[in-house]
Specification:
By secondary structure, this protein is mainly beta. It is 4% helix and 54% strand.
Length: 90
């Protein structure tokens, strides 16, 4: 499960995150970038979850693993709304 934080470079330890090393990723435009990786605990749907946090300066992203069981709605416009809604369990 991944959580990307925007403009975190150099500030992960200040936030109390635990450094885990570095990870390379291929971006949407095909370039390869290296991210600092941290471990963190987040509260998601009222429960604590351990996640991997990748430092990024590109924008705020969350991985698909964190979205499992949720509905994602995006207004694909500048400053558009983004909603994450927990789906009813089947």
């Amino acid at each position: 499960m991944y959580l990307f934080l925007y403009s975190l470079s150099g500030k992960g330890v200040e936030l109390g995150l635990i450094p885990q090393g570095y990870q390379k990723a291929t971006l949407g435009d095909g370039t390869i970038s290296q991210f600092r990786v941290y471990a963190a605990t987040v509260i998601w749907d009222g429960e604590r979850r351990l996640v991997e946090v990748n430092s990024a300066t590109t924008g705020i992203l969350i991985g698909m693993g964190l979205l499992e069981g949720h509905k994602l709605e995006v207004d694909a416009t500048p400053n558009g709304n983004v909603s994450i809604i927990k789906l009813a369990e089947i």
